[in-house]
Structures are given as C-alpha cells and as structure tokens.
Amino acid sequence: MTTISKPSYRHLLDADASPEELVIAYHERTKHFFHRYAASLGSMDWATQPDPFRRYPGADLVRLVLPKPGRPLPYWQLYGLGDMSSEPLSAASISLLFRYALSLTAWKRFHETTWSLRANPSSGNLHPTEGYAVLPAIDGLGSAPAVYHYAPREHALERRAILNAKAWTQLCAPFPESSFLVGLSSIHWREAWKYGERAFRYCQHDVGHALASLRIAAAALGWGLLLHDGISASAVADLLGFSRSDDYGTAEREEPELLALVTPHLPSTYVQLLNELRGGSIGAQWCGRANTLSPEHRVEWTVIDEVAQATRRSESAPITEDFSRFPTEEQLFGSPVRDGMRTAETAILGRRSAVAMDGSTAISQEAFFRMLARLIPTRDRRSMPWDAIPWRPRIHLGLFVHRVEGVPPGLYALARDPDKLAALKEVMRREFRWQRVLSCPPGLPLYLLQEGDCRALAATVSCGQHIAGDGAFSLGMIADYIESLTTYGAAFYRNLFWEAGMVGQVLYLEAEEAGIRSTGIGCYFDDPVHEVFGITPREWQSFYHFTVGGQVEDTRLTTLPAYNFEPEQ
Ligand SMILES: Cc1cc2nc3c(=O)[nH]c(=O)nc-3n(C[C@H](O)[C@H](O)[C@H](O)COP(=O)(O)O)c2cc1C
Fold first, then answer.
1. Which of 538, 489, 547 has the alpha carbon at shortest distance from 230?
2. 517 lines ligand 1 (CB under 6 A)
3. Running DSSP on this structure, what letter comes out for residue 4?
4. For the whole model, what pTM was predicted?
5. How far, in Å, are 124, 289, 302, 517, 550 from residue 473 at the CA level?
6. 465 lines ligand 1 (CB under 6 A)
7. Is 127 in the pocket of ligand 1 (CB under 6 A)?
8. How far is the CA of 344 from the centre of ligand 1 (A)?
9. CA 131 – CA 568 distance, rounded (Å)
10. Is the predicted pLDDT of residue 489 greater than 80, yes or no?
C-alpha cells in the first residue's frame, strides 16, 4: 500500500478569530504563487478516488423518463423570460429540468478508461455538487410531497423523505401554485481528494455553475427561480436530510449550500417561506443511507472544515438592493437579441470545456459584446440568470483580449456594476487608459485599459495553461471582496464564488451559441493576476478565470451517449 505523507496541519487561526478573519486567512493560505501552489497531495491517490455518484440505497428510485430530444426552443429565447408560456408541473417537466441542469451529457472513453460529463461543469470533473428537489405530489413521481435526491447516472430521483401533506401545503401557501424547491450541497472530499486545501473554492465555483444551470433549465420551461439567500445552513440541512448523522455513518457528509424556489411566476415575497422553514416541522419520514465514496481518506483537509464552518449561513433578512441605475436591455445589447444559431437544448446539452484552444480563431465584436452584455443584470431585474440572485454584481472582469475583430488586443475591464467604475479605477494601475470602447452598445461598461499582446501574460498567470492565451479572449474575475464580507458577513464568501460560477456558466453557453468553446480556469496565480491589473490592496481579489475561443478537439477520445436507454417516442 502506498504511504501518503500527511500535510502539516495548522489551524487557520486561533480559536477566538472571527469568521471574517478565518475566511481571509483561508483565502490567503490557498493562493497559488509562482514559487508554490496551495497545499495538496501533489499526486493522485488512485486507491481512494471518490465515487462521482452519491446514492442513497434504501430510498425508492423513481426513474425520470428521458425527455424526447430535439426541443425547438431557440437558445436566445431563454433570456426572453415572460415572452413564453410556462410548462405545467409534471413528471415530464421535472425530468426536463434535471436533464438540462445536472444530468449526464456524454460518456468519454480513452483506451480502458471511461468517464462521464454533465450539463454542469466541474473543476477536475470531480463533481462535488449534489442536487435535490422538494416536490409536491406529482403523477408518475409520487403520491405525497417528498424530498428527492437527483441521481445523474440513472437520471432518476431518490425519494429520501415523504412529507406530511398538510405541512407541505402550509410551507407553500404564500407561493403560486406549482412552486417547489431545489437545493444543492457539496461533498468537499470529492474535490479535496485531488486539489487539497484550495478545493473549498472549487466546490463553491461548482455550486455557482449548478445554480446557473438550474436557473437556465427552469427558463427553458418558462419558470422562474429565486435563491433563498436568507435561510440558514442548518435549516437547509434539516430540510434536505444532511443533519441526519445516522443516514451517513462513515459515508462522506454533505455540506448544505443553498435552497431556491422554482415557480411558474415570480412571487412578490418569500419571507414567509423562511419563517415556516425555521420551524422545521415538515413531518418527514426518511429512508435511505448514503453510500461511501472512498474506501478511506488518508488525508483530512481540516482547513476546509474550518472555512466551511466560518461561512455557514445563519438566518438573515433577505438581501434587497437597488438596480435602478443599471442599463436597460436596449442599452446593453443595442437591439435585443432575437435570433441565433442554436436551440437551447443543443447549447445546454452540447456544452463542453475546451481542453486546448487553436490559437487562431477570432470572433466578431458583435459576438464579444453580446457575450459580455449577457453578464450584466438589467434595470428591470428580469435578465436571466441574474434574476435568481438579489445582490448587485460583486464580480467584475479584467479581460485579456487576443482575437476579437475590430477590438485591439490588450487589457480591458468590464464593470458589471456601473456604480463600481470609480472604485475599480481607483484600485487599478494609475496609467490605465479607461477608454470607452466606442463601437460597443452604450450600456455596456467595457473599457480599454492598455493595448498590447497579452497572450503570454494570460497563460502565465493562469498557471501556465495555454488555453488562456490561445483563445479569443480570457479573463480574471475580480471580486469586490472585503466590502462584500463587511456588508453581508463571512457566509457571503461563498456567494462571491457562486456569482463567479454563474458568470462562467453564461459564458459556457454563450460560447456554444457562438460556435466556439470556453473553459473555466480555477488554477491561476492569485497575486500575479492582481499585479497585472495593479491591484495591491487585499480588498479586491481574483476569484476565477475563464477562457473563450476556438477549440482543438481531442480526437483520441471516443464519445458515447449519456444514457443507453432509448428516449420515449
Ligand atoms: C471551477 C472550475 C475550474 C476549472 N479549472 C480548470 C483549469 O484550471 N484548467 C482546465 O483545463 N479546465 C478547468 N476546468 C474545466 C473542467 O476540467 C471541466 O469542466 C471538466 O473536466 C468537465 O468537463 P466539461 O466541462 O466538458 O463537462 C474547470 C472547471 C470548473 C467548473
């Protein structure tokens, strides 16, 4: 048996440190530097590789009929919420929701090795995120309201708990008929197994991607989705069963992340739901016990437990922020996008990360501006997926533009909150030009900072990954970090990654629509990125990287269908 040397264990900080201090200590400690990476094993312990599929043996498995492929909804229409009628809540529409949000989209094979890919991406394809739904009685799914875990390999729901029908009715009383809840959790171990201490960040990115993919899937059904930002982690854990120690035994625990309301129409208030959940009296009868994902854990990444604890949400008032100074759809896009190349389904199920970029494909400036415009909430709060979260953007983009026709190569900034422009100017290099890109729509806050070839620079700061320099453009996501923690507390550390993941998910789909590809980049050298943009104070930090461009297909791999059962005719 291989002996694994344990990394030296240190607490993040003393026991009397505040949660915010713990977050800052974690963030600093898990930075990658040119001279050293954040602590990880440094090699793969294949004997303990986690099972990517959580299951709850003992819980009934309700198979979802695979939706018939070829839904004609155009991709652009996902963003035209309100213009389409909403699908009725049924076993078929729930199947479609999970198909588009979290299902398998392909199996890949190389020699004897096979692995699956999903609608939602994941750092290292390790998929720490688990999906849940709390649904009313639905023909073909169950005759009582219930808590379900989504099993992506089977495209099925595991019925974890049956709820008291009266309690469910009370819970949902304030909402439009046919509303229900979806939830997400993380299994930190899956990600830490490979990435060590930095893995908590990646789990949070993945939650953000999954939240956006759920929002987008709901949009394909004409439904709304709203994050319950005020609910406590312990309420989520109680509702979804993560607090039931006996159901886990030695199996890896799940960290409660979020709960969201899915509804055919957006409700005017959801405060009452929080009140009801607080009581926790949903009369659940539980079944199933979690499977163990790794035969053993030869390393415990204790700082992840510490930062998870420090960022666990307590109950709070829902966030309300003012978007009245944000641009309108017309200001952002010029003329609103009402046509395109793909159906929603081909973009969603065809989404893939590029493993290499070709170093030659250029994109039109129209495509570039449209992708960026999709990342900005509109004044009316209806732009999808930003309508799912109540806070104003805390993530801004530092762009490395390589090949965009009509846009000179160089460094650019996109201020996703127009009111943060002055603060960004203040924090970045004095010599930057901050010149409006005149050819872009008037509401798109895109600024040229410095012209020049930044291909090598982009790759260098992205841990030397060529994909960052060989695409049409890449970017660093600069978070308004300390101010966010000061305003909303340590738990908001997670929200910053979620927002970054949501930005990434939109870019993934926009790249598909434009006939190119993109890739999330979690491996970047933190402070060298700050150095590029001249950011010295700790207040602003890079939270994620991304690249978009023409991909080089890996022809050595065989692609197999996601599910081997035939779709219903
Ligand atoms: C948070 C996050 C970080 C990632 N970081 C990198 C990275 O640094 N380099 C890379 O080549 N791919 C990266 N990826 C892409 C993943 O490897 C990819 O999503 C995964 O292999 C699954 O493939 P798919 O996206 O095609 O489904 C990242 C993805 C996510 C979501």
1. 489
2. no
3. P
4. 0.96
5. 22, 46, 37, 11, 10
6. yes
7. no
8. 21
9. 24
10. yes
